[in-house]
Input
Amino acid sequence: MKQKYLPLTATILIFLLSYALCVAQYPNMLSTRVIGNLLTDNAFLGIAAVGMTFVILSGGIDLSVGAVIAFTGVFLAVVLEQSSIHPLAAFALVLAITTLFGALMGAIIHHLEMPAFIVTLAGMFLARGMAFVLSIDSIPIKHPFYATLKGLYFKLPGGGRITLIGGLMLLVFAVGILIAHRTRFGTNVYALGGGTATAKLMGVPVASTTVRIYALSGLLAGLSGIVFSLYTSAGYSLAAVGVELDAITAVVIGGTLLTGGSGFVAGTLVGIFIQGLIQTYITFDGTLSSWWTKILIGLLLFAFILLQKGIIRLSRNGRQPA
Amino acid sequence: MTSTVRTYLTRLLPQLIALTIILAAISIIFPGFLNLQIQNGRLYGSLIDILNRGAPVVLLAIGMTVVIATKGIDLSVGAVMAICGAVSASLITSGHSLAETLLVTLAVGILCGIWNGILVAVLDIQPIIATLVLMVAGRGIAQLITEGAILTFNDPGLIYIGSGSFAGLPMPVIIWLVFGVLVALVVRQTALGMLVEAVGVNREASTLSGVFTPVLLVAAYVLSGLCAAIAGVIAAADIKGADANNAGLWLELDAILAVVVGGTSLLGGRFSIAASVLGAIIIQSINTGILLSGFPPEFNLIIKAAIIVFILVLQSPRFRAAFQFVSIPRAAGKPTEREAK
Output
């Protein structure tokens, strides 16, 4: 049973070790300010990654996340600029749209029996295209309510701040962990990842679970888009390109098995932290160029895939004699 | 011989019809569209432009077809294009000869393919994830080579590859024509193509029946890497510089789309390189058509999404079961099962 926790333990150890190394070189990195910024800067990515975790746990993939984030941002910017609707109402509206969008993709994946990869690729084109149609310019959001939301924060000892969006990400992770481990839906997701045929035989409602998984991913991508528009105070149809890849990477580094069925939402949070830490280190160093982030994250991704392969092989070998 | 021609035509019929409809539609909106003229011994016109602009996606689609036929996918081609463009630009600016530059660049593409192939065939990682590693890290590597800047060059030999012409046609068109015919011949005149399809239909069964699967899989990814290298050189030569950030960006998705439009199933098995090339040309015609007809280019992505959904519905098992009495659409969307039988 302990093997289940091995990738997660490895992720946490790597994070602690690399954080310790960073602190040894730059003692200033051990401050609540850095931790607060880490949360704020990665909030939108973290929220999207929670949705991605559920999708990957079920054995699927969602490539539309980045495009949905961009669509949400542009939609909010256009709506707030051209009508007098309150931002909260606009938030509710856009969340409904993205949730429906995700549910539709889930329905296509299940009912047309097509690979999630290509269906969500079409979804990515569609969402990005809708964003382009709404506006090709970067539209600033100047609504006073945005300023109020951005001004909200919880002060930590040592000068750090947990901003509204940073706190929201932690909340989403907490809710995600509860859903994954304490609800019937969560159990169904894990069962689906173990194999569709087996899940069907066990009585898992495959159709409704698949639709709900992608609806959840759409909802969280929309929420991530709202956070992103708060973070940048603008809507731009070319924003958030490639966020889906960062999210997938965070999920894998977090120890979730890409074939589905095994992993933890909490691991994804550590995966986000590791990516953020690499970026923070490069900022602190100042001489390293930003492209090292990509190379290091690629290497980490590779290392974790190898680790997963090793564990699967070990567990198979262990089972065979019995 | 006539029967082979007929099978080819039936296989390519849906794509040819689609292409004809699209070209006809554009020429109605934009009358001068089909005009060709010769200036300074070179053909000019929108049609030639489509063939020329489509060169990178056509090349990527050739490699992607074989990879998808093995039930794989190669997400790294865009990043490999960026790496190879950067390699060729940095070699040519540091004073190496054109032959050396091209050889090393193609070798780098092959190396990238070997890396992907080993991850898939030997370490047994899912292709989407295995190639994701290089997709994420590749652009970083390309930026490392160009040191973050856009490396420009003015070597006439290298530029000729991107914008020169030979026998009246632009050089990129010649390159993909020759390369495509070569690959199609190698794959179809030998048993290789059939073995690739066998691996795609059932990897375990083909291994058990004596197909040396790992080597075939690595070879498929090597071909894809090689295609990406050529496409990368063309893209760099076209703009006389290597742009690590934007070269080949999202072209992997266009290449996959081209293969899907060409009717090769993403579930592996039966494939047609000619159909994928036609698929790439169809996509490029749509792009050019949208530009020419004065539609805002913003609609480009939505139209692409609509096309994917349409083809997905055609290919979906449920749809086909419901319309089994219609025979022609079946042939259009159902390459794999006929082969399996």
Q: What stands out?
A: The domain at 2-315 of chain A is CATH 1.10.3470 (ABC transporter involved in vitamin B12 uptake, BtuC). The mean pLDDT of chain A is 88. Chain A is about 75% helix and 5% strand. The interface with chain B takes residues 61, 108, 111-115, 117-119, 121-126, 128-130, 132-133, 136, 245, 248-249, 252, 258-259, 289, 291-295, 297-299, 301-302, 305-306, 309 of chain A (CB under 8 Å).
